[in-house]
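Cast an eye over this sequence plus C-alpha coordinates and explain the fold to me:
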Amino acid sequence: MPSHFDSNRLAILNFIRSSCFLIATWPLTFQFLFICPSSNAQDTQVEKAMVTLLKAAGGRSETFHTRIVAEGTIGNVNEKFMLDVLKDGTDYDIRLTHRQYSLQLRRRSSGTALALPNHQVAFVATGEIDLTTGDNLDPNSLAARLISSESAQGQIAPLLFAFEPAHVLNLAKTSMGAKVDPATGILSIGGMEIRSPQPDQIQTSHSGMKVRAGVSELKEPLLPHDQWPDYRIENVDRQQLEQTIARAVRRATEILMPGESLTAAGAAQIQAENGESRNIEGHRVILLRGTHQQIGQAHGKVLQYETARTIDSVIHVYGLLQTLATGKWFPSELEKRFKELEAHIPPEYIEEQRQLAQSIGQPAQVIHGLNLCLEQIHSGGFAAFNSATSNGQLLHAGMLEGLANMALLDVTVSFIISVEGKTPFASVGYAGFTGCISGMNLSQIAISKTSDFHTGQATGIPMSILARMALEKCDSLESAVQLIQQSPRSGQGVFLITDGTANLASAVLSSAEITKVVDAATGHPRLGDTIKDCVVTPCLNQIAELPKALTSKLSSLDAESAIGWLPELATKESPLQNVVLSPASGLLHVSNTYRLPSGEQPVVVKLDIKELAESPLTPVPPQ
Protein backbone atom coordinates (compact mmCIF):
# COMPACT_ATOMS: atom_id res chain seq x y z
CA MET A 1 0.00 0.00 0.00
CA PRO A 2 1.16 3.62 -0.29
CA SER A 3 3.81 4.57 2.21
CA HIS A 4 1.51 6.90 4.18
CA PHE A 5 -0.49 3.83 5.27
CA ASP A 6 2.59 2.66 7.11
CA SER A 7 2.94 5.51 9.59
CA ASN A 8 2.00 5.32 13.26
CA ARG A 9 -1.05 3.05 13.10
CA LEU A 10 -2.32 3.86 16.58
CA ALA A 11 -2.30 7.57 15.77
CA ILE A 12 -4.26 6.91 12.61
CA LEU A 13 -6.79 4.77 14.47
CA ASN A 14 -7.25 7.43 17.16
CA PHE A 15 -7.76 9.97 14.40
CA ILE A 16 -10.32 7.69 12.75
CA ARG A 17 -12.25 7.29 16.00
CA SER A 18 -12.38 11.00 16.69
CA SER A 19 -13.03 11.92 13.07
CA CYS A 20 -16.00 9.56 12.79
CA PHE A 21 -17.63 11.79 15.39
CA LEU A 22 -16.43 14.79 13.44
CA ILE A 23 -17.71 13.61 10.06
CA ALA A 24 -21.16 12.94 11.46
CA THR A 25 -21.41 16.15 13.51
CA TRP A 26 -23.45 18.19 11.03
CA PRO A 27 -26.47 15.90 10.68
CA LEU A 28 -26.22 14.35 14.14
CA THR A 29 -25.99 17.58 16.10
CA PHE A 30 -29.56 18.32 15.18
CA GLN A 31 -30.95 15.00 16.40
CA PHE A 32 -31.70 16.38 19.81
CA LEU A 33 -33.80 19.14 18.25
CA PHE A 34 -36.44 16.51 17.61
CA ILE A 35 -36.95 15.92 21.28
CA CYS A 36 -37.65 19.51 22.25
CA PRO A 37 -41.12 20.04 23.75
CA SER A 38 -42.97 23.23 23.17
CA SER A 39 -46.06 25.19 23.72
CA ASN A 40 -47.68 26.41 20.55
CA ALA A 41 -45.95 29.75 21.00
CA GLN A 42 -42.46 28.34 21.64
CA ASP A 43 -42.11 31.12 24.21
CA THR A 44 -38.99 30.00 26.10
CA GLN A 45 -35.52 30.94 24.94
CA VAL A 46 -34.39 27.33 24.56
CA GLU A 47 -37.44 26.52 22.42
CA LYS A 48 -36.93 29.57 20.21
CA ALA A 49 -33.28 28.59 19.74
CA MET A 50 -34.35 25.07 18.80
CA VAL A 51 -36.75 26.37 16.16
CA THR A 52 -34.05 28.58 14.66
CA LEU A 53 -31.54 25.74 14.52
CA LEU A 54 -34.09 23.31 13.15
CA LYS A 55 -34.98 25.70 10.35
CA ALA A 56 -31.30 25.98 9.43
CA ALA A 57 -30.72 22.21 9.59
CA GLY A 58 -33.77 21.48 7.47
CA GLY A 59 -32.84 24.02 4.79
CA ARG A 60 -35.80 26.27 5.60
CA SER A 61 -33.54 29.29 6.15
CA GLU A 62 -32.06 30.73 2.98
CA THR A 63 -29.15 32.59 4.54
CA PHE A 64 -27.41 31.91 7.85
CA HIS A 65 -24.17 31.13 9.67
CA THR A 66 -24.35 28.15 12.04
CA ARG A 67 -21.47 27.32 14.38
CA ILE A 68 -21.16 24.05 16.28
CA VAL A 69 -18.40 23.46 18.83
CA ALA A 70 -17.79 19.98 20.30
CA GLU A 71 -15.31 19.26 23.09
CA GLY A 72 -14.45 16.05 24.93
CA THR A 73 -12.14 13.08 25.30
CA ILE A 74 -11.93 10.58 22.46
CA GLY A 75 -9.41 7.73 22.64
CA ASN A 76 -7.78 9.26 25.73
CA VAL A 77 -7.15 12.47 23.79
CA ASN A 78 -8.82 15.79 24.58
CA GLU A 79 -10.40 16.97 21.36
CA LYS A 80 -12.10 20.17 20.23
CA PHE A 81 -13.89 20.56 16.93
CA MET A 82 -15.47 23.68 15.47
CA LEU A 83 -17.87 23.39 12.55
CA ASP A 84 -19.10 26.45 10.67
CA VAL A 85 -21.88 26.18 8.10
CA LEU A 86 -22.44 29.28 5.94
CA LYS A 87 -25.37 29.27 3.52
CA ASP A 88 -26.51 31.78 0.92
CA GLY A 89 -29.38 30.44 -1.17
CA THR A 90 -28.22 27.18 -2.77
CA ASP A 91 -24.54 27.92 -2.14
CA TYR A 92 -22.88 26.90 1.10
CA ASP A 93 -19.54 26.46 2.84
CA ILE A 94 -18.65 23.98 5.58
CA ARG A 95 -15.51 24.78 7.57
CA LEU A 96 -14.11 22.30 10.03
CA THR A 97 -11.39 23.37 12.47
CA HIS A 98 -9.39 20.91 14.58
CA ARG A 99 -6.00 21.08 16.30
CA GLN A 100 -4.46 18.75 13.74
CA TYR A 101 -6.96 18.21 10.92
CA SER A 102 -9.05 20.88 9.23
CA LEU A 103 -11.05 21.20 6.03
CA GLN A 104 -13.12 23.62 4.03
CA LEU A 105 -15.90 22.49 1.70
CA ARG A 106 -17.40 24.84 -0.86
CA ARG A 107 -20.47 23.76 -2.78
CA ARG A 108 -21.79 25.89 -5.65
CA SER A 109 -24.11 25.03 -8.55
CA SER A 110 -21.10 25.18 -10.88
CA GLY A 111 -18.71 23.08 -8.82
CA THR A 112 -17.47 21.70 -5.51
CA ALA A 113 -14.14 21.98 -3.71
CA LEU A 114 -12.58 20.28 -0.69
CA ALA A 115 -9.61 22.22 0.72
CA LEU A 116 -7.19 21.11 3.43
CA PRO A 117 -5.55 24.14 5.08
CA ASN A 118 -2.90 22.09 6.89
CA HIS A 119 -1.69 20.70 3.56
CA GLN A 120 -2.38 23.82 1.48
CA VAL A 121 -4.15 21.73 -1.16
CA ALA A 122 -7.62 22.09 -2.71
CA PHE A 123 -9.38 19.29 -4.58
CA VAL A 124 -11.51 21.17 -7.11
CA ALA A 125 -14.34 19.64 -9.15
CA THR A 126 -16.34 21.47 -11.80
CA GLY A 127 -19.26 20.46 -14.00
CA GLU A 128 -22.64 18.78 -13.94
CA ILE A 129 -23.55 16.09 -11.42
CA ASP A 130 -26.14 13.31 -11.27
CA LEU A 131 -28.73 14.28 -8.65
CA THR A 132 -30.89 11.17 -9.01
CA THR A 133 -28.90 8.84 -6.70
CA GLY A 134 -28.92 10.93 -3.52
CA ASP A 135 -25.14 10.45 -3.19
CA ASN A 136 -24.38 14.12 -3.69
CA LEU A 137 -24.15 17.36 -1.74
CA ASP A 138 -27.09 19.21 -3.29
CA PRO A 139 -28.54 21.38 -0.49
CA ASN A 140 -32.10 20.18 -1.09
CA SER A 141 -32.93 17.89 1.90
CA LEU A 142 -29.21 17.40 2.45
CA ALA A 143 -29.27 16.89 6.22
CA ALA A 144 -32.00 14.23 5.98
CA ARG A 145 -30.12 12.40 3.21
CA LEU A 146 -26.92 12.32 5.26
CA ILE A 147 -28.52 10.33 8.10
CA SER A 148 -28.65 6.64 7.20
CA SER A 149 -32.00 4.88 7.41
CA GLU A 150 -30.14 2.07 9.22
CA SER A 151 -28.76 4.32 11.95
CA ALA A 152 -30.53 4.61 15.27
CA GLN A 153 -31.95 7.96 14.12
CA GLY A 154 -32.84 6.78 10.63
CA GLN A 155 -36.56 6.52 11.27
CA ILE A 156 -37.03 9.92 12.87
CA ALA A 157 -34.77 11.87 10.51
CA PRO A 158 -37.42 12.20 7.77
CA LEU A 159 -39.89 13.54 10.36
CA LEU A 160 -37.28 15.86 11.80
CA PHE A 161 -36.75 17.71 8.56
CA ALA A 162 -40.04 17.21 6.71
CA PHE A 163 -42.43 19.11 8.98
CA GLU A 164 -42.59 22.63 10.28
CA PRO A 165 -40.43 22.98 13.42
CA ALA A 166 -43.41 23.90 15.60
CA HIS A 167 -45.22 20.70 14.60
CA VAL A 168 -42.15 18.60 15.31
CA LEU A 169 -41.71 20.15 18.72
CA ASN A 170 -45.33 19.67 19.69
CA LEU A 171 -45.17 16.01 18.63
CA ALA A 172 -42.10 15.48 20.77
CA LYS A 173 -43.80 17.02 23.78
CA THR A 174 -46.75 14.68 23.61
CA SER A 175 -44.86 11.49 22.71
CA MET A 176 -41.50 11.66 24.48
CA GLY A 177 -42.17 13.33 27.81
CA ALA A 178 -39.68 16.14 27.46
CA LYS A 179 -40.09 19.09 29.82
CA VAL A 180 -38.79 22.61 30.19
CA ASP A 181 -38.18 23.87 33.70
CA PRO A 182 -39.79 27.34 33.68
CA ALA A 183 -37.50 28.51 36.48
CA THR A 184 -34.21 27.61 34.79
CA GLY A 185 -35.24 27.37 31.15
CA ILE A 186 -33.50 23.97 30.91
CA LEU A 187 -34.93 21.27 28.68
CA SER A 188 -34.61 17.77 30.16
CA ILE A 189 -35.25 14.46 28.45
CA GLY A 190 -33.79 11.00 28.90
CA GLY A 191 -31.06 12.24 31.24
CA MET A 192 -29.91 14.95 28.80
CA GLU A 193 -30.15 18.65 29.57
CA ILE A 194 -30.25 21.37 26.91
CA ARG A 195 -29.69 25.01 27.81
CA SER A 196 -29.88 28.25 25.87
CA PRO A 197 -27.31 30.66 27.32
CA GLN A 198 -28.06 33.31 24.68
CA PRO A 199 -30.77 33.82 22.03
CA ASP A 200 -30.45 31.39 19.10
CA GLN A 201 -27.81 29.34 20.94
CA ILE A 202 -27.98 26.02 22.77
CA GLN A 203 -25.57 23.76 24.63
CA THR A 204 -25.80 20.12 25.69
CA SER A 205 -23.79 16.91 26.01
CA HIS A 206 -23.81 14.09 23.48
CA SER A 207 -21.82 10.81 23.61
CA GLY A 208 -19.42 12.26 26.14
CA MET A 209 -18.89 15.43 24.13
CA LYS A 210 -19.99 18.91 25.19
CA VAL A 211 -21.76 20.50 22.26
CA ARG A 212 -22.60 24.17 21.67
CA ALA A 213 -24.55 25.36 18.65
CA GLY A 214 -25.88 28.69 17.46
CA VAL A 215 -27.21 30.54 14.42
CA SER A 216 -26.38 34.08 13.37
CA GLU A 217 -26.58 36.30 10.29
CA LEU A 218 -24.26 35.64 7.36
CA LYS A 219 -21.80 38.53 7.38
CA GLU A 220 -19.36 37.57 4.60
CA PRO A 221 -19.71 36.73 0.89
CA LEU A 222 -19.16 33.15 -0.23
CA LEU A 223 -16.18 32.91 -2.60
CA PRO A 224 -16.15 30.94 -5.88
CA HIS A 225 -15.51 27.23 -5.43
CA ASP A 226 -12.26 27.33 -7.43
CA GLN A 227 -10.69 30.40 -5.83
CA TRP A 228 -7.88 29.22 -3.52
CA PRO A 229 -4.90 31.62 -3.49
CA ASP A 230 -1.61 30.02 -2.36
CA TYR A 231 -3.11 26.51 -2.46
CA ARG A 232 -2.02 23.70 -4.73
CA ILE A 233 -4.99 22.86 -6.95
CA GLU A 234 -5.76 19.26 -7.87
CA ASN A 235 -8.69 18.69 -10.23
CA VAL A 236 -10.86 15.68 -9.37
CA ASP A 237 -14.10 14.17 -10.62
CA ARG A 238 -17.09 15.98 -9.11
CA GLN A 239 -19.34 12.93 -8.92
CA GLN A 240 -16.60 11.02 -7.08
CA LEU A 241 -15.87 13.89 -4.71
CA GLU A 242 -19.48 14.47 -3.68
CA GLN A 243 -20.25 10.75 -3.49
CA THR A 244 -17.23 10.13 -1.24
CA ILE A 245 -18.26 12.84 1.21
CA ALA A 246 -21.98 12.01 1.19
CA ARG A 247 -21.52 8.27 1.66
CA ALA A 248 -18.81 8.79 4.29
CA VAL A 249 -21.10 10.95 6.41
CA ARG A 250 -24.03 8.57 5.98
CA ARG A 251 -21.94 5.57 6.96
CA ALA A 252 -20.49 7.50 9.92
CA THR A 253 -24.01 7.88 11.33
CA GLU A 254 -24.30 4.07 11.22
CA ILE A 255 -20.91 3.61 12.89
CA LEU A 256 -21.65 6.10 15.67
CA MET A 257 -25.31 5.24 16.25
CA PRO A 258 -26.08 1.89 14.63
CA GLY A 259 -29.66 0.79 14.33
CA GLU A 260 -30.93 -2.61 15.38
CA SER A 261 -30.54 -4.06 11.89
CA LEU A 262 -26.79 -3.45 12.09
CA THR A 263 -26.17 -4.62 15.66
CA ALA A 264 -28.31 -7.74 15.80
CA ALA A 265 -26.51 -10.99 15.07
CA GLY A 266 -28.03 -12.74 12.12
CA ALA A 267 -27.95 -12.95 8.36
CA ALA A 268 -30.45 -13.19 5.55
CA GLN A 269 -30.51 -16.50 3.71
CA ILE A 270 -30.00 -15.67 0.04
CA GLN A 271 -29.49 -18.02 -2.92
CA ALA A 272 -27.77 -17.35 -6.22
CA GLU A 273 -26.27 -19.38 -9.02
CA ASN A 274 -23.00 -20.80 -7.62
CA GLY A 275 -23.50 -19.50 -4.11
CA GLU A 276 -25.68 -18.84 -1.11
CA SER A 277 -25.72 -17.07 2.23
CA ARG A 278 -26.63 -19.17 5.29
CA ASN A 279 -27.48 -18.08 8.79
CA ILE A 280 -25.78 -20.50 11.18
CA GLU A 281 -26.51 -19.61 14.81
CA GLY A 282 -26.67 -15.93 13.88
CA HIS A 283 -23.40 -16.06 11.93
CA ARG A 284 -23.20 -15.21 8.23
CA VAL A 285 -21.68 -18.13 6.26
CA ILE A 286 -21.20 -17.77 2.50
CA LEU A 287 -20.84 -20.80 0.21
CA LEU A 288 -19.26 -20.05 -3.19
CA ARG A 289 -18.53 -22.62 -5.92
CA GLY A 290 -17.43 -22.65 -9.55
CA THR A 291 -14.89 -20.77 -11.60
CA HIS A 292 -13.31 -17.58 -10.35
CA GLN A 293 -15.69 -15.63 -12.58
CA GLN A 294 -18.74 -17.48 -11.24
CA ILE A 295 -17.57 -17.08 -7.66
CA GLY A 296 -17.14 -13.33 -8.14
CA GLN A 297 -20.65 -13.02 -9.53
CA ALA A 298 -22.18 -15.11 -6.74
CA HIS A 299 -20.24 -13.19 -4.09
CA GLY A 300 -21.82 -9.94 -5.21
CA LYS A 301 -25.31 -11.37 -5.50
CA VAL A 302 -25.50 -12.89 -2.02
CA LEU A 303 -23.64 -10.03 -0.31
CA GLN A 304 -24.82 -7.04 -2.30
CA TYR A 305 -25.85 -4.82 0.61
CA GLU A 306 -23.09 -5.95 2.95
CA THR A 307 -20.46 -5.26 0.29
CA ALA A 308 -21.90 -1.77 -0.19
CA ARG A 309 -21.43 -1.14 3.54
CA THR A 310 -17.84 -2.42 3.37
CA ILE A 311 -17.17 -0.02 0.50
CA ASP A 312 -18.66 2.86 2.46
CA SER A 313 -16.57 2.03 5.54
CA VAL A 314 -13.29 1.57 3.72
CA ILE A 315 -13.34 3.57 0.48
CA HIS A 316 -15.45 6.46 1.73
CA VAL A 317 -15.03 6.82 5.53
CA TYR A 318 -11.46 5.56 5.84
CA GLY A 319 -10.55 6.98 2.44
CA LEU A 320 -11.82 10.46 3.30
CA LEU A 321 -9.97 10.39 6.60
CA GLN A 322 -6.78 9.32 4.85
CA THR A 323 -7.21 12.25 2.45
CA LEU A 324 -7.54 14.61 5.42
CA ALA A 325 -4.51 13.08 7.12
CA THR A 326 -2.17 13.00 4.13
CA GLY A 327 -3.33 15.73 1.76
CA LYS A 328 -3.50 13.17 -1.07
CA TRP A 329 -6.69 12.25 -2.90
CA PHE A 330 -7.27 8.69 -1.70
CA PRO A 331 -9.04 7.27 -4.78
CA SER A 332 -6.14 8.40 -6.97
CA GLU A 333 -3.62 6.87 -4.58
CA LEU A 334 -5.46 3.54 -4.63
CA GLU A 335 -5.71 3.50 -8.41
CA LYS A 336 -2.00 4.25 -8.70
CA ARG A 337 -1.06 1.49 -6.27
CA PHE A 338 -3.24 -1.09 -8.01
CA LYS A 339 -1.57 -0.32 -11.33
CA GLU A 340 1.80 -1.01 -9.69
CA LEU A 341 0.62 -4.41 -8.45
CA GLU A 342 -1.67 -5.50 -11.26
CA ALA A 343 0.99 -7.25 -13.35
CA HIS A 344 1.99 -9.43 -10.37
CA ILE A 345 -1.51 -10.54 -9.31
CA PRO A 346 -2.66 -13.75 -11.02
CA PRO A 347 -5.32 -12.72 -13.55
CA GLU A 348 -7.99 -15.09 -12.20
CA TYR A 349 -8.15 -13.11 -8.95
CA ILE A 350 -8.42 -9.81 -10.80
CA GLU A 351 -11.21 -11.27 -12.92
CA GLU A 352 -13.03 -12.51 -9.81
CA GLN A 353 -12.95 -8.98 -8.39
CA ARG A 354 -14.19 -7.56 -11.70
CA GLN A 355 -17.12 -9.95 -11.73
CA LEU A 356 -17.94 -9.11 -8.12
CA ALA A 357 -17.93 -5.40 -9.02
CA GLN A 358 -20.13 -5.96 -12.04
CA SER A 359 -22.69 -7.95 -10.05
CA ILE A 360 -23.19 -5.08 -7.58
CA GLY A 361 -23.05 -2.29 -10.16
CA GLN A 362 -19.70 -0.82 -9.09
CA PRO A 363 -16.66 0.11 -11.19
CA ALA A 364 -13.96 -2.57 -11.01
CA GLN A 365 -11.46 -0.12 -9.52
CA VAL A 366 -13.69 0.25 -6.46
CA ILE A 367 -13.40 -3.48 -5.61
CA HIS A 368 -9.70 -3.52 -6.51
CA GLY A 369 -9.14 -0.58 -4.16
CA LEU A 370 -11.33 -2.10 -1.45
CA ASN A 371 -9.23 -5.26 -1.40
CA LEU A 372 -5.99 -3.29 -1.27
CA CYS A 373 -7.28 -1.38 1.75
CA LEU A 374 -8.40 -4.55 3.50
CA GLU A 375 -4.79 -5.74 3.34
CA GLN A 376 -4.44 -3.59 6.45
CA ILE A 377 -6.47 -6.14 8.42
CA HIS A 378 -4.31 -8.89 9.83
CA SER A 379 -4.46 -11.81 12.22
CA GLY A 380 -2.11 -12.04 15.15
CA GLY A 381 -2.20 -15.44 16.80
CA PHE A 382 -0.44 -18.69 17.54
CA ALA A 383 -0.16 -22.38 16.76
CA ALA A 384 -0.01 -24.92 19.61
CA PHE A 385 0.52 -28.67 19.35
CA ASN A 386 1.91 -31.77 21.11
CA SER A 387 2.46 -30.93 24.80
CA ALA A 388 0.90 -27.45 24.46
CA THR A 389 -2.65 -28.74 23.83
CA SER A 390 -4.87 -30.99 25.89
CA ASN A 391 -4.92 -33.81 23.31
CA GLY A 392 -1.71 -33.09 21.44
CA GLN A 393 -3.53 -32.05 18.27
CA LEU A 394 -2.65 -28.87 16.46
CA LEU A 395 -4.63 -25.67 17.09
CA HIS A 396 -4.26 -22.54 14.95
CA ALA A 397 -5.68 -19.38 16.54
CA GLY A 398 -6.10 -15.91 15.08
CA MET A 399 -7.38 -12.52 16.20
CA LEU A 400 -8.40 -10.32 13.31
CA GLU A 401 -7.74 -6.65 13.87
CA GLY A 402 -6.73 -3.48 12.08
CA LEU A 403 -9.38 -1.38 10.38
CA ALA A 404 -11.89 -3.93 11.59
CA ASN A 405 -12.59 -2.27 14.92
CA MET A 406 -13.37 1.00 13.16
CA ALA A 407 -16.23 0.25 10.84
CA LEU A 408 -16.62 -3.39 9.75
CA LEU A 409 -18.64 -4.70 12.65
CA ASP A 410 -21.70 -5.47 10.57
CA VAL A 411 -20.09 -7.08 7.49
CA THR A 412 -18.21 -10.03 9.00
CA VAL A 413 -18.39 -13.24 6.99
CA SER A 414 -17.07 -16.80 7.00
CA PHE A 415 -16.52 -18.01 3.44
CA ILE A 416 -16.50 -21.63 2.26
CA ILE A 417 -15.03 -21.44 -1.25
CA SER A 418 -14.59 -24.24 -3.79
CA VAL A 419 -12.88 -23.13 -7.01
CA GLU A 420 -12.98 -25.61 -9.86
CA GLY A 421 -9.76 -27.65 -9.93
CA LYS A 422 -8.51 -26.26 -6.59
CA THR A 423 -8.69 -27.33 -2.95
CA PRO A 424 -11.81 -26.09 -1.11
CA PHE A 425 -11.08 -23.81 1.84
CA ALA A 426 -12.67 -21.71 4.56
CA SER A 427 -11.73 -18.08 5.21
CA VAL A 428 -12.84 -15.64 7.90
CA GLY A 429 -13.23 -12.18 6.43
CA TYR A 430 -15.57 -9.44 5.23
CA ALA A 431 -18.13 -8.86 2.50
CA GLY A 432 -16.41 -7.81 -0.71
CA PHE A 433 -13.00 -9.20 0.33
CA THR A 434 -11.57 -11.85 -1.99
CA GLY A 435 -8.28 -12.57 -0.20
CA CYS A 436 -7.62 -14.51 2.99
CA ILE A 437 -6.63 -13.18 6.41
CA SER A 438 -7.07 -16.43 8.32
CA GLY A 439 -8.35 -19.76 6.97
CA MET A 440 -7.77 -23.46 6.30
CA ASN A 441 -8.36 -25.98 3.53
CA LEU A 442 -9.53 -29.58 3.22
CA SER A 443 -5.90 -30.74 2.96
CA GLN A 444 -5.42 -29.79 6.64
CA ILE A 445 -3.37 -26.66 5.87
CA ALA A 446 -4.17 -23.44 7.74
CA ILE A 447 -2.68 -19.97 7.28
CA SER A 448 -2.93 -16.50 8.81
CA LYS A 449 -1.17 -13.32 7.78
CA THR A 450 0.07 -10.48 9.95
CA SER A 451 1.16 -7.25 8.29
CA ASP A 452 3.92 -5.16 9.83
CA PHE A 453 2.85 -1.90 8.12
CA HIS A 454 6.25 -1.23 6.56
CA THR A 455 5.30 -2.20 3.02
CA GLY A 456 6.72 0.85 1.23
CA GLN A 457 6.37 0.75 -2.52
CA ALA A 458 7.38 -2.87 -3.20
CA THR A 459 5.56 -4.57 -6.05
CA GLY A 460 4.36 -8.14 -5.91
CA ILE A 461 1.36 -10.23 -4.89
CA PRO A 462 -0.63 -8.82 -1.94
CA MET A 463 -0.26 -10.93 1.22
CA SER A 464 -3.94 -11.86 1.41
CA ILE A 465 -3.90 -13.20 -2.16
CA LEU A 466 -0.77 -15.21 -1.36
CA ALA A 467 -2.51 -16.69 1.68
CA ARG A 468 -5.49 -17.70 -0.45
CA MET A 469 -3.22 -19.19 -3.11
CA ALA A 470 -1.56 -21.34 -0.45
CA LEU A 471 -4.93 -22.71 0.66
CA GLU A 472 -6.05 -23.43 -2.90
CA LYS A 473 -2.82 -25.09 -4.05
CA CYS A 474 -0.92 -26.58 -1.11
CA ASP A 475 -1.30 -29.86 0.79
CA SER A 476 1.75 -29.68 3.09
CA LEU A 477 3.60 -27.22 5.27
CA GLU A 478 6.63 -27.46 3.00
CA SER A 479 4.71 -26.66 -0.19
CA ALA A 480 2.99 -23.67 1.43
CA VAL A 481 6.30 -22.27 2.66
CA GLN A 482 7.81 -22.73 -0.81
CA LEU A 483 4.92 -20.92 -2.46
CA ILE A 484 5.48 -17.90 -0.20
CA GLN A 485 9.23 -17.97 -0.79
CA GLN A 486 9.02 -18.29 -4.56
CA SER A 487 6.31 -15.68 -5.17
CA PRO A 488 6.88 -11.92 -5.60
CA ARG A 489 5.65 -10.23 -2.42
CA SER A 490 4.26 -6.72 -2.01
CA GLY A 491 4.51 -6.39 1.74
CA GLN A 492 6.40 -7.09 4.93
CA GLY A 493 4.88 -9.24 7.62
CA VAL A 494 4.48 -12.74 8.99
CA PHE A 495 2.61 -15.80 7.74
CA LEU A 496 1.64 -18.46 10.27
CA ILE A 497 1.30 -21.78 8.44
CA THR A 498 0.17 -25.03 10.08
CA ASP A 499 -0.16 -28.62 8.86
CA GLY A 500 -2.70 -30.85 10.62
CA THR A 501 -1.38 -34.03 9.00
CA ALA A 502 2.19 -33.49 10.17
CA ASN A 503 1.11 -31.70 13.39
CA LEU A 504 3.65 -28.96 12.69
CA ALA A 505 3.74 -25.19 12.37
CA SER A 506 6.09 -22.54 10.98
CA ALA A 507 6.16 -18.79 10.77
CA VAL A 508 7.44 -17.20 7.58
CA LEU A 509 8.85 -13.72 8.16
CA SER A 510 8.49 -12.09 4.78
CA SER A 511 9.51 -8.92 3.00
CA ALA A 512 9.72 -8.06 -0.68
CA GLU A 513 13.35 -9.20 -0.74
CA ILE A 514 13.77 -12.08 1.72
CA THR A 515 11.95 -14.69 3.80
CA LYS A 516 12.95 -16.40 7.04
CA VAL A 517 11.29 -19.59 8.28
CA VAL A 518 10.91 -19.94 12.05
CA ASP A 519 9.65 -23.01 13.92
CA ALA A 520 8.88 -23.69 17.57
CA ALA A 521 12.53 -24.41 18.39
CA THR A 522 14.28 -21.51 16.65
CA GLY A 523 12.28 -18.41 17.52
CA HIS A 524 12.86 -14.83 16.43
CA PRO A 525 12.85 -11.42 18.22
CA ARG A 526 9.93 -10.23 16.06
CA LEU A 527 7.82 -13.09 17.49
CA GLY A 528 8.56 -12.59 21.18
CA ASP A 529 9.64 -15.26 23.66
CA THR A 530 10.00 -18.84 22.44
CA ILE A 531 7.47 -21.32 23.87
CA LYS A 532 7.78 -25.09 23.65
CA ASP A 533 5.51 -26.67 21.02
CA CYS A 534 4.15 -23.27 20.02
CA VAL A 535 4.73 -20.82 17.21
CA VAL A 536 3.49 -17.36 18.12
CA THR A 537 2.89 -14.63 15.52
CA PRO A 538 1.75 -11.58 17.47
CA CYS A 539 0.81 -8.28 15.94
CA LEU A 540 3.31 -5.54 16.71
CA ASN A 541 1.28 -4.39 19.73
CA GLN A 542 1.13 -7.94 21.16
CA ILE A 543 4.80 -9.03 21.06
CA ALA A 544 5.23 -8.93 24.84
CA GLU A 545 1.67 -9.74 25.90
CA LEU A 546 0.62 -12.66 23.69
CA PRO A 547 3.49 -15.10 24.50
CA LYS A 548 3.14 -14.35 28.21
CA ALA A 549 -0.62 -14.92 28.17
CA LEU A 550 -0.27 -18.12 26.14
CA THR A 551 2.27 -19.61 28.55
CA SER A 552 -0.31 -19.64 31.33
CA LYS A 553 -2.67 -21.74 29.20
CA LEU A 554 -0.28 -24.46 28.06
CA SER A 555 -1.28 -28.13 28.18
CA SER A 556 -4.94 -27.31 28.84
CA LEU A 557 -5.74 -25.76 25.47
CA ASP A 558 -8.46 -27.12 23.23
CA ALA A 559 -10.51 -25.36 20.57
CA GLU A 560 -13.38 -24.43 22.91
CA SER A 561 -11.19 -23.05 25.68
CA ALA A 562 -8.97 -21.18 23.22
CA ILE A 563 -11.85 -19.39 21.48
CA GLY A 564 -13.22 -18.45 24.90
CA TRP A 565 -9.86 -17.16 26.12
CA LEU A 566 -8.91 -14.97 23.15
CA PRO A 567 -11.27 -12.09 24.07
CA GLU A 568 -9.24 -11.62 27.28
CA LEU A 569 -6.50 -10.11 25.09
CA ALA A 570 -8.87 -7.45 23.74
CA THR A 571 -7.61 -3.87 23.66
CA LYS A 572 -8.95 -0.85 21.85
CA GLU A 573 -7.35 -2.20 18.70
CA SER A 574 -8.10 -5.83 19.35
CA PRO A 575 -10.18 -8.20 17.49
CA LEU A 576 -13.41 -7.87 15.71
CA GLN A 577 -13.23 -11.60 15.04
CA ASN A 578 -11.54 -14.46 16.84
CA VAL A 579 -10.97 -17.77 15.10
CA VAL A 580 -9.56 -21.14 16.16
CA LEU A 581 -8.80 -23.58 13.36
CA SER A 582 -8.39 -27.31 13.92
CA PRO A 583 -6.83 -28.50 10.65
CA ALA A 584 -6.84 -32.23 11.47
CA SER A 585 -10.58 -32.30 12.22
CA GLY A 586 -11.63 -29.60 9.76
CA LEU A 587 -13.44 -27.63 12.46
CA LEU A 588 -13.48 -23.85 12.59
CA HIS A 589 -14.58 -21.98 15.72
CA VAL A 590 -15.35 -18.29 15.17
CA SER A 591 -16.72 -15.53 17.36
CA ASN A 592 -17.73 -12.05 16.29
CA THR A 593 -17.91 -9.17 18.74
CA TYR A 594 -20.54 -7.21 16.80
CA ARG A 595 -21.36 -4.36 19.25
CA LEU A 596 -21.73 -6.35 22.43
CA PRO A 597 -22.59 -4.62 25.72
CA SER A 598 -19.67 -4.42 28.14
CA GLY A 599 -18.95 -7.76 29.77
CA GLU A 600 -21.12 -9.79 27.42
CA GLN A 601 -19.35 -12.70 25.74
CA PRO A 602 -19.61 -13.18 21.98
CA VAL A 603 -21.45 -16.18 20.56
CA VAL A 604 -19.10 -18.91 19.34
CA VAL A 605 -20.08 -20.78 16.18
CA LYS A 606 -18.51 -24.12 15.20
CA LEU A 607 -18.32 -24.86 11.48
CA ASP A 608 -17.39 -28.17 9.85
CA ILE A 609 -15.79 -26.98 6.62
CA LYS A 610 -15.86 -30.40 4.90
CA GLU A 611 -19.55 -30.79 5.61
CA LEU A 612 -20.29 -27.27 4.37
CA ALA A 613 -18.11 -27.64 1.27
CA GLU A 614 -19.92 -30.85 0.29
CA SER A 615 -23.47 -29.81 1.18
CA PRO A 616 -25.69 -29.12 -1.85
CA LEU A 617 -26.56 -25.50 -2.58
CA THR A 618 -30.18 -24.51 -2.10
CA PRO A 619 -31.90 -24.10 -5.49
CA VAL A 620 -32.41 -20.53 -6.62
CA PRO A 621 -36.09 -19.56 -6.19
CA PRO A 622 -37.90 -18.86 -9.46
CA GLN A 623 -38.14 -15.19 -10.36
